[in-house]
Amino acid sequence: MDSHGAGQGTAHHADDAAFSFVCLGVGGGPLETNCSGYLMKPADQKWSDGTTLLEAGSLATLLREPKNALFDAEFPDCSAEGKAEIVNAWVRQALISHGHLDHIFGLVLASAAQRVQRPVYGLRDTLDTILGVFNGRVWPKLASYDANDPGAFYHLRAYVRAYPVSHGASLLAHGTAKFSPIRSHDSSPNPCKFDTGHISTTVSTAFLFTHTRKDQDVLFMGDVEPDTVGGSSLNRHVWEAVAQRAAQGKLRAVFLECSYGSAQPNEFLFGHLTPPHLYAELKMLAECVRVARREKHTTGILRGLKCVVIHVKDMMLPGPGCPCRIPSNCDPELLASTEPGPLPVDLRKEIAGELDALEAEGQLGLEIIVTKQGQRIGAP
User: b/e string for 183-203 if b means 16 or more Cβ within 10 A?
Assistant: First the structure.
């Protein structure tokens, strides 16, 4: 498979990978069939030994034919629906970065056929948002912080190795509790506090996974805005926290979102990244690694690190009054023409090209993988 994830292969060799991922969904809307969702397991274990559901936007679409993605799993001779039920039974817990619908939609719908009680981990703000969906109005009360609640299929647990990051400002209903990070200047992840008001920082999460036997890490960042746009240092705190492991070659992959192409203006990022912002974050990591290694430059300093690009929003045609800029490879005259044109734009291809150009100039030594639904990342 090439470095941009075409096809259904694996992104690197089995002996290199600490974890295996299946991309159930890699987008951030507008298509409900391809929202954020990943199955994860240690590379040296079987899928049937237990998996972790990392984000839960889209689940069922891929699991209707699980053998295509889980080609190394053992299934009995049964229907596609039966195999999907088996895969669901392998999930031991779910980790959710934040409570937006493109990250919890599948989790909510799956509760209608849930057979067992399952823990859901995340920051407290994320869990409170999920609990607000399972409120008896939007959806039945099937989630609870009480592990002894017999009616709750999802047990919410705020115990996880995670770092808060900012997913942009949101306008809330009056009196709704907001969750705002405290901005400090130390190198540890910022603590957080609750407040009330109309404007709130949407808190997302960066999860750090360590395979203890292989002594390797994977960092998975949920939706995130640039520090330069959000006015915080939350992302820098994450990079500083993982820099020593990256300097030792122990950090093997970073999952990082890139929702839009470079043409998207900062005022319409809505808490997301574009290729220039994504690469700026990686340059910040590279600088932290340079300091940790006491080197003079960052050329090639991230060699061996894979940047797995996720959450690309499927391209929709701009309409009248659309505030977003037209992608650079799209002829504006085509939008006003009745003649068929080469639209919609393949935004994944555009983002891959823009990141390639940035890496060609920056020379950090990265391998960049722009994900597709159904793709395998890591060891088979």
Answer: eeeeeebbebeeeeeeebbbb
Give me the percent of the chain exceeding a pLDDT of 70: 76
pTM: 0.84
Structure confidence at residue 72 (pLDDT): 87
pLDDT tens-digit profile of 72-120?
A: 888 888 887 788 888 888 999 999 999 999 999 999 998 887 778 899 9
User: Which structure tokens are listed for 13?
Assistant: 């060799």
Tokens representing 163 are: 């770092």
CB of 310 closer than 8 Å to CB of 371: yes
Q: How far apart are CA 105 and CA 94, in angstroms?
A: 13
Rounded distance between C-alpha atoms, residue 141 and residue 154, angstroms: 10
> CA-CA distance, 140 to 31, in Å (whole number)?
24
Separation of alpha carbons 55 and 29, rounded Å = 14
Query: How far is the CA of 374 from the CAs of 4, 63, 274, 366, in angstroms?
Result: 14, 10, 23, 23
Alpha carbons 50 and 46: distance in angstroms, whole number: 7
Torsions phi, psi for 180 (to 5 deg): -120, 130
Q: What is the mean pLDDT of the chain?
A: 82
